[in-house]
Design goal:
Layout: H1 3-11, H2 16-22, H3 27-30, E1 33-39, E2 44-48, E3 51-55, E4 61-62, H4 73-83, H5 92-97, E5 99-101, E6 107-116, E7 122-134, H6 144-151, E8 158-162, H7 168-180, E9 185-189, E10 210-214, H8 218-228, E11 233-236, H9 245-253, E12 257-263, H10 267-270, H11 274-281, E13 287-291, E14 300-305
Parallel strand pairs: 8-12, 8-13, 9-10, 9-11, 11-12
Antiparallel strand pairs: 1-2, 1-7, 2-3, 3-4, 5-6, 6-7, 13-14
């Protein structure tokens, strides 16, 4: 699936007036957009190479909101309902977690007024005030520097780290493709944004020997993968909570190698995350890759042998 198709899928979530503004942007700039942001009663903006720009009606990208397009309440409402395929209440987990994965692997994050249950956890969100449409990327060979450093001697367990929007998911997707060309891979695609499966068929190239666990709860997917598909390596995105540990340790104790990611800009930050720090302490991770940000987004910045 190419970038033009993913951008088109993202544009289909917009109201007609905002879609017209998007397509007034020059093709070169438009194809470089990684996020589209809508803030109720404020502005319509785009993120390119880590920087956010306001969009004018004639498609200019500006640092200042002067003359920028306003995101009207109906623009927010239209995009929100379209993200949920017209049936918001059919996705209670996504409503509670504040994001939903849409066609092409694009992810729509949102915020507004939280509604909490008796335990104090968010059960849903109402009066949506902001939307962030993150456009998925499939960049062949972007993970090659990491792959060559981590797996030159065979399979190993690896953690890939960067701040939010630092290219972790894109790199992890490409690692699945590279590893899946040689090894049996279980891809834990909890949010449906790695393989972007439709009717059970991955729309991204995730490897010839890769089995996709699409939209499974993470813990259940990991245990099921080990028991039923006999993977040599297991790939999952954004670990961090202690609740991930039992399932991950079960897989590692079964002889499966782990490739995972977490939010962290430095190796010191990695060691402060509950799940990664425990895996490092137990000496089950072989190496760590830290990715760059901004113009170096998704590129290998630092590499550690553990």
């Amino acid at each position: 699936m190419n970038e033009h198709t993913r951008l088109r899928y993202a544009s289909e979530l917009l109201s007609d007036r905002l879609k017209d503004c998007l397509y007034a942007i020059s093709p070169t700039e438009r194809e470089s957009i990684s996020e589209l942001r809508l803030r109720r009663g404020r502005y319509f903006s785009a993120v390119l190479f880590g920087r956010e720009y306001f969009i004018t009606p004639d498609g200019k990208l500006m640092n200042s909101p002067v003359n920028a397009v306003t995101a009207l309440p109906q623009d927010i409402d239209i995009s929100y309902v379209r993200a949920f395929k017209g049936s918001v209440h059919a996705y209670p987990r996504e409503q509670a977690e504040g994001y939903i994965t849409c066609r092409g692997g694009n992810r729509v994050g949102f915020c507004g007024t939280a509604v909490t249950d008796r335990s104090g956890d968010v059960s849903t969100v109402k009066k949506i005030s902001s939307l962030n449409i993150r456009i998925a990327r499939e960049v062949a060979d972007c993970a090659l520097p990491v792959y060559e450093r981590a797996f030159s001697g065979g399979l190993a367990s690896l953690i890939v780290c960067s701040p939010p929007c630092g290219g972790k998911t894109t790199v992890l997707r490409d690692l699945s493709r590279l590893l899946g060309a040689r090894y049996r891979v279980a891809l834990i695609d909890e949010r449906g944004e790695l393989a972007c499966s439709e009717d059970g068929v991955p729309q991204n190239d995730v490897g010839a020997h890769t089995d996709v666990f699409d939209c499974y709860p993470r813990r259940q997917a990991i245990v099921t993968a080990v028991r039923t598909m006999a993977p040599e390596v297991l790939i999952c995105d954004e670990i961090g909570a202690k609740s991930d540990l039992d399932a991950l340790e079960y897989a590692l104790d079964s002889g499966v190698k782990l490739v995972c990611s977490c939010h962290a800009g430095t190796f010191d930050e990695v060691k402060k995350r509950p799940a990664p720090s425990k895996l490092i302490k137990d000496k089950v991770l072989s190496c760590a890759a830290i990715l760059g940000t901004g113009s170096s987004c998704g590129r290998l910045k630092e590499f550690y042998k553990l």
